[in-house]
Structure formats: structure tokens, C-alpha cells
Amino acid sequence: MNKDIFEECLEAWKASDGTSKFWPVLAEKYGYASGEILRSRFKRERKNRGIFDKNAVVPVRRGEKKGCKVLCFDIETTPLLCFAWGMWQQNINQRAVVEDWHVLSWSAKWLFEDSVMSAVLTPKEARNHDDKRIIEQMWKILDEADVVIAHNAARFDIPRMNTRFLYHGFPPPSYYQVVDTLKVARSNFAFTSNALNYVNGYLRLPQKKETGFQLWVDCFYGDSDALKKMLAYNENDVLVLEELYVLLRPWIKGHPNLGLFVESKSSICPNCGSKKLEWEGYYNTPMGRYRSFRCECGAIGRGRKNIVSKKTKERLVR
Question: Do the Cβ atoms of 117 and 234 come closer than 8 Å?
Fold first, then answer.
């Protein structure tokens, strides 16, 4: 659950006398299908944070602890609404676009945390093609992240979010590094298809929910049931993305170095941040030799010191 949503729900819950009808109001404000759904998610998040008493001091969210904040996220957008002269090999003129795309929903999850944060347009917002409220929420979360994980992040999720940030007048979020699991799949393996659902199915991981194009059409026109289904579909996407990322992580060359975020005198695995490294063998490059390690996560890497002697270096040629 988004930090701002949680805090507003918490304040309303603390101030309530047990008979207040604030849940439907907050649900409409934040794009939840009903007050009951919002209340249920708030209850789970409250318990996750250890808040059982209305007078308790709110602890710091686990995602705000010191260390690298790794975020898995996914968005759903509308199709274009446009005029066309046919159905095959059409070149759509820009003047034929009646309504450009916008974001329908987003879902995000701090790595290994239990709760999923998400938002979807209200029926009114969908009919008015107004995604500013949920875009602002996503901006605040991305602004907190150190590393962002998404499938097709480089060509879809990130440029699409940046486009809507620019449209609504938001500045760039704070700098974060990106891991695109689609790029990882393409560069390291030979899957028949690199689509998230296919790769997860092949690897016997949880898969995406079944859906169809009609769901996007119904959401475009503000159907409340369709928007509810879209949110559930989007939330599941970020869960299956996390499963794939963790499995692929040992294979990711050039992964953002998580050792930068850990205070330790020991060596740290750059891929997962673990100190449990087994040093074995050597890692050779054209002009050097380094001690090699394997982490408990499966990743392999090398130390920083070139152990080739000065005399050997002098006779090496390329």
C-alpha cells in the first residue's frame, strides 16, 4: 500500500469511533473498487507494520530502512483511440488519433516485502482520461527507489511513466538504476518467447492472470468491474515479476552493486548484498587474474586486486 494512502487511512482509523463511513470515501479518492477492499488491505498493511493498537507509535516502514531499496513495478495503459481506413498494414496519421494513451493502473512492490502497493483510475477518471492522481503516487514511489525492476522497462514502463510525469508537470524522480528482466532474458538465454508469461511458464514459476483485449476496452470507458479486474491483474503481474527477477539475478552481468548500500568490512555480493561468499578458483581477463567467488544466491564474481605479478604483466601482450 502506498505510504500516503496508508497514513491517511491510519489517521482516519485512529480518529474513528467505530461507526464512521470514511472507507468508501477514501476508496473512491484512491481508486479502490470498494471501501471494504481498502479496509482489508489497510488491515493487512497495519499488521505487517506491527500496529495493533490505535494509540501505538507508528514504526518506520521496512522499505525505509537503511540499505538499497529495490522496487519491482508494472503499469497498464490504454490503447489509442483513432480512425483508420482499414485493418491491415495501416499507417495511422497523427491527426487520426482521437484519444492518446494514458495510464490505467500501476502496481509496485519492495523486494521481499509482503505488501503490494497499487492504484487504478476511478470510473470517472477513466472516462475523463485523467491519470494525474495515480501518476503522482507512482512518482513518489519511484523517487524513493535505488533500483527499479521491470519486464521491458527500457522500452515501455519507464519511458511511458516519464512521458506522463512530463505531461503532468512533475520533475524527474531521483536517480535510480534499472534492471530490465526482458533484456536479461534476451541476452543470456534462448527462450522461444521472452514474454513474461511464457518465460515464467517455462521455468515453472507463477504466471500472469488470464485476460483479453476487451478488458482494456471496458476500462477505457470507465467500467467499474473492469477497473477492479485490471487492478488485480496488475498486482499479480508484479508478484510474478519478482519471482522471475530473483531466479534470474545470479545471471545478471553488471547488476547494480548492492555492496554500495551495505556497511561491512567483509566483501559483499554485488547482485544480492549477501556476505556469504565462497572464494574458489580464479577469474581471468585478457590482462589479469583475480580471486573468484560464488555467492549463496548463485552469482559469481571476482575480487578487485589483480594478483598477476609485475614480472608477468611485463611479458603479457594483447
Answer: no
Residue type, 289: R
Grid coordinates of 290: 583475480
Q: How far apart are CA 208 and CA 236, in angstroms?
A: 6
The Cα-based distances of 160 to 75, 106, 120, 188 in angstroms read 9, 12, 16, 26
Domain boundaries, the chain: 1-59, 64-251, 266-315
Q: What is the mean pLDDT of each run of 10 residues along the chain (318 residues)?
A: 82 74 84 82 72 50 63 97 93 95 97 93 96 96 96 97 96 96 97 97 95 96 97 97 96 93 88 92 88 92 88 82
The cell numbers describing 97, all together, are 488519433
Distance, CA of 142 to CA of 10 (rounded, Å) = 23
**Position of cell 498494414?**
89
pTM of the model: 0.77
For 64-251, CATH gives 3.30.420.10
Return the closest-CA partner of residue 110 out of 197, 164, 49.
Answer: 49
Which is nearest to 237 in space by CA: 144, 120, 122?
Answer: 120
